[in-house]
Automatic annotation (TrEMBL):
Domain of life: Eukaryota
Keyword Acetylation appears in the UniProt entry: no
The keyword Signal is assigned to this record: yes
PANTHER family with a match to the protein in the record: MALECTIN-LIKE DOMAIN-CONTAINING PROTEIN (PTHR33512:SF34), PROTEIN, PUTATIVE (DUF1191)-RELATED (PTHR33512)
Listed transmembrane segments: 236-260
GO cellular component: membrane
Organismal lineage: Eukaryota, Viridiplantae, Streptophyta, Embryophyta, Tracheophyta
The protein, known as: Malectin-like domain-containing protein
Signal peptide: 1-19
Keywords, sorted A to Z: Membrane, Signal, Transmembrane, Transmembrane helix
């Protein structure tokens, strides 16, 4: 019975923890995880300038990653005409300087609002990201991002699947920095945005009353540190607490059933002993090397043949 209970506990807990493990990742932790899976897409000897699409774990289904390995000088002199939704012009520089770098592409799809919540706004397109890493070790994980910036023309992002803008509302481009801040900018040709550095980008529209004024970020945009962490942690603890409570309750139920079975068995043995004690005891006598029950007297006395002799 306990094995069956443990089996059901595992079936119940594993899907919850699996979904929760993805939800409790921060945006920066997600960047590190996607860097690992993007680098895995690069074969043993990847060709420079070729885009390699990566695969993400099943608990992040929908998110897309890709990796593009480039020479630093080639990126600066030629740029990249088309890398997914990104057009990288000439004159892009990285800091610190490296000989080769990998540009990692993200498309968060339906996970956008989970990792980049923006109260009061609705996403009209999925968030796409572009981050740069040193390519000296393609098997490395948890790498620090390079700081890439456009020194001439800005980087252009042609966002996919942009939804129609509700009448009377004005869409805005939004860019998220690695420090958790964000900036608003104007949309170009209804579906494109521009940026001077790496980060994550999308198009949003405000659907509620204007939020309180936020501190301006360097560069003229509006800045806000990534909030919602405490709220997400509160949800995590609620789910973990409910799972642990359910497990403890199920274990207590199993222990109670085991005790109940043990009590019924002892009760049956006690009843059998009482029934045996209420029976009529027989006199025991030694017969050879064993003991056997004997009767106190016979019911019919035997008749002797001598009694009938005249």
């Amino acid at each position: 019975m306990l094995l069956v209970a443990y089996f059901y506990i595992i079936l119940w807990i594993v899907p919850v923890l699996r979904a929760q493990s993805a939800a409790e990742l921060s945006a920066r932790s997600l960047d590190s995880l996607l860097q690992d899976y993007a680098f895995r897409a690069l074969v043993v000897r990847p060709r420079t300038g070729i885009v390699y699409d990566g695969n993400v774990p099943s608990n992040l289904t929908g998110i897309k990653v890709a990796a593009l390995r480039l020479r630093s000088g080639s990126l600066r002199r030629r740029g990249v005409n088309s890398y997914k939704e990104f057009h990288i012009p000439i004159g892009v520089l990285e800091q610190p300087y490296v000989e080769r770098l990998v540009l990692v592409y993200h498309n968060l799809a339906n996970w956008s609002s989970l990792y980049y919540p923006l109260p009061g706004y609705t996403y009209l397109a999925p968030i796409v990201g572009l981050l740069a890493y040193d390519a000296v070790n393609l098997s490395a994980t948890n790498l620090q991002e390079l700081d890439i910036r456009a020194s001439k023309d800005p980087i252009t992002i042609h966002l996919p699947n942009v939804q129609l803008v509700p009448k009377g509302l004005s869409p805005k481009c939004i860019s998220f920095g690695l420090d958790g801040s964000f900036q608003f900018d104007n949309v170009i040709n209804r579906s494109a945005c521009s940026a001077a550095k790496q980060g994550h980008f999308s198009i949003v529209v405000e659907f509620t009353a204007p939020a309180p004024a936020l501190a301006p970020a360097p560069g003229g945009g509006t800045s806000r540190q990534g909030g919602g962490g405490e709220k997400n942690n509160h949800k995590v603890w609620i789910i973990v607490g409910s799972v642990v409570g359910g497990v403890l309750l199920l274990l207590l139920l199993c222990i109670l059933l085991a005790c109940l079975r043990k009590y019924r068995r002892r009760r049956n043995i006690q009843r059998m002993e009482e029934a045996a004690e209420r029976g009529e005891p027989l006199l025991m006598a030694n017969v050879g090397f064993t003991k056997a029950p004997v009767a106190l007297e016979t019911r019919t006395r035997p008749s002797l043949e001598d009694d009938y002799v005249p």
